[in-house]
Amino acid sequence: MGFVIMITGIPGVGKSTITKLALKRTRARFRLVNFGDMMFEEAVRMGLVKHRDEMRKLDPQTQKTLQLKAAQRIVEIAREEPVLIDTHATIKTPVGYLLGFPREVIEILNPNFIVIIEATPSEILGRRLRDLKRDRDVETEEQIARHQDLNRAAAISYAMHSNALIKIIENHEDKGLEEAVNELVKVLDLAVREYA
Ligand code: AMP
Ligand code: MG
What we know:
Helix content: 40-55%
CATH topology: Rossmann fold
Mean pLDDT: 94
Bound molecules: adenosine monophosphate, magnesium ion
CATH superfamily: P-loop containing nucleotide triphosphate hydrolases
């Protein structure tokens, strides 16, 4: 059992901002977990990396081990309370796109919803340029568009291996944020019914 929502979107789309605002508004009580944090804690414990932005450069098999560990911890949490996972549908690695949720991993998590936050490539590029905290890869608008296309395709494959419904939420400049937050609140509120 448990109620699990995965929230995905490429770096710079506004995923964390929307998620935090929606959590303040929903009547459902979610535990917010960052999948990257869970993987990172394990990676540090194993002595593999010192910074989270080094993880995507690890060999794919090692990343999969970290994904499995993270998923196992998260299902334990989901037994107790609804969980919202801040994560990525695919990760752009130096050697190609890595699935954020290979079959074994998505089967463990069995999410109820996969939310995809999207914006236009130019909006994403602008937000990335304003956020200098992270060691982000520099991408063109075409590359951003392709990555978003791939994330939709990945979401379909995750829905194939779970009971998830896919929800696409657009986060555009000027009042798009408000609407995006409202859309996410509607999805989160479903957890109240589930637990009632
Ligand atoms: P974030 O802070 O959400 O940008 O995530 C930081 C890092 O965590 C990413 O660059 C990835 O290396 C890793 N990460 C997050 N979610 C996943 C996932 N589902 N599969 C593999 N790596 C992930
Ligand atoms: Mg984030």
